[in-house]
Every structure is written in structure tokens, then in C-alpha cells.
Amino acid sequence: MKAAVMTGLKKMTYVERDIPKPADNEVLVKLEYVGICGSDLHHYETGRIGNFVVEFPFVPGHEPGGTVVEVGKNVTHLKVGDRVAPEPGKTCGHCEFCRTGRYNLCPDVIFFATPPVDGVPGICSA
Ligand SMILES: [Zn+2]
Ligand SMILES: [Zn+2]
Q: How far is the CA of 39 from the centre of ligand 1 (A)?
């Protein structure tokens, strides 16, 4: 698959990346759209936001839309062909914040397109 990557400040190119294989609790999403927001632009122009410093190459973009094309064996609520707008943060699901619906405060969140995590790679937790 083609991935748009930053190779330096204000420098981007396309590279070939392997299509990821979804784990048992994940789905593979064929991306059709990816928004570029203010945090992506900060990374593009300055290479950082606060303590999050970009190391190149880096994939921007964490607001995707697409279609499910493969489903892990433990996923029961999504199927191939579903159109989805994935949540860009993978949270633990077990901490107090996650259990009380405030998962945006999860201290263990892995957030796409926030260094060192690449942007939407085409695979998301279900
Ligand atoms: Zn954003
Ligand atoms: Zn959590």
C-alpha cells in the first residue's frame, strides 16, 4: 500500500508499506479519507508539539474514514464492508477513566499521528 510520510520538516513523499495484518481483536480498514488537522500541521511545520518530537519518517493523519476489508476472529460487531470512522486513540479499556466513559483521559492511550506513533496505518482496534 502507499503511505504518505513526512521525511523532514515540510517534506513529504509516498512510500510502499506492507499491508498490516489485523490481530484477533482488530480490523483492517481500507482508508478512503484522512483529515489533516492542526496537530498534523504543527508536526509538518515545526516537527513537534510540546514534548512529542517527530522522528522521520513519520506518517501524519489520525482522522480517517474507510471500509472494513478484514476482520480479526474475536471481532463480533463489525464485518467486511462496514463503513467506519475509526477512533484515533487506542485505550486500555481497563483503567478507571476507560471504565467510566472518559477514555480520552486514559493514561495508556496510544494515539495515532502523535510521536512516536505513526498516523492511521490502516489497522485499528475494534
Ligand atoms: Zn486531529
Ligand atoms: Zn484506560
A: 6
